[in-house]
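Chapter review: from sequence to fold.
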Amino acid sequence: MSAQSEITRFVQFYNSELARTGFKPDHTSTRESRIAFLQQTVKRFCSSLLAMKRADPTRPISDEVVVFVGLGPEYRTF
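The token string follows.
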């Protein structure tokens, strides 16, 4: 499976979760609520090829980026 196809499938799933839950990741939500929503969505999507992004262990996890972590030239596609 290519990184682009997996990320496209995730974006579609993410949008369906936004519609299903009514969550709005905008200026009215907190960073913590956006992280929690993205974590739950990544778990529900259930792919071993996607993970949430963290630049390094001392920095907080991203509230808006997922990473494709497959083998080959697409390794770590955001």
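Two observations follow directly from the output. The chain has a mean pLDDT of 88. The radius of gyration is 13 Å.
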